[in-house]
Amino acid sequence: MTNGIRSGNVMTLKKALEIAEANHFAIGSFSPRYTPMIKAVLQAGQQALSPLIVQISHKELVRYGITPGEFAEEFYRRIKDDGITVPAVLHLDHTKELGTIREAVEAGFTSVMIDASEKPFAENAAISKEVAEYAHAMGVSVEAELGMIGTTDFVETDTDEELFTDPQEAAEFVRLTGVDALAVSCGTAHGVYNVRKPRIDYDRLSAIRALTPVHLVLHGGSGVPADMMRQAFQLPGGGVSKVNIATDLELALLESLGREERMTNEECKALDADRLRTGRQAVTDTVIGKMNTFLLSAGKAPSFHN
Description:
eight-stranded parallel beta barrel; globular
């Protein structure tokens, strides 16, 4: 890496998901959204002895006023200063802009997601292949998306449209692009489920898994019942290995502070010590809860050394 700041327990997404899939659990990809909350997420992993992924999307970087460099700098600072030893991945979530991907790779992100899912199949595949070739040359994993995952809050994506992933297309897409992980659309959505109920099309997931050699990702993990999610990553032959969770963390933070409106990153950094401690504890507790009951990843850090 150009910055030379990776530490021994920080790994690529590909390596982390290989171990998760082999051991039938999923790794949570948690978006702190504010740099002061990176500490809270990492401490949750350390306390639960769970591998974890810390992520942020392009739209979150813009909305909360953060650069990839600032996010990465705080991530690696906390890894070092807080003595974090559990396996960790630094991931750039939904991003359409190649410039942001390059900036993240240069900053030390170990995984990036190119989201060209709104493009026609051939164009999505061509763009994803370009990113995979660039990132792999830099030792960085790549996630792409096929199908369209709906949203309710527009923080990560632009539309609430939903288009389920076709298993045959998924197989061809992976063959053409060489990506390491594939986000699939099979019923979950970004944001809070205000009206519709979360659902997962397990038959579709199983068909995609049977035809593709890469690791599968479910976006929109906030608000999905734990038993529903566990079934998704315990499917025969391997199911989902990565689950994205963002909204639940921010809701816990804001509730602990008695707020309803989101902050900017600078507002969060300006919180006094007591309120910052309160907010961090709420986020840590939420993440540990997901690791214990939702992902079954708690206590799995030692499996990375076997």
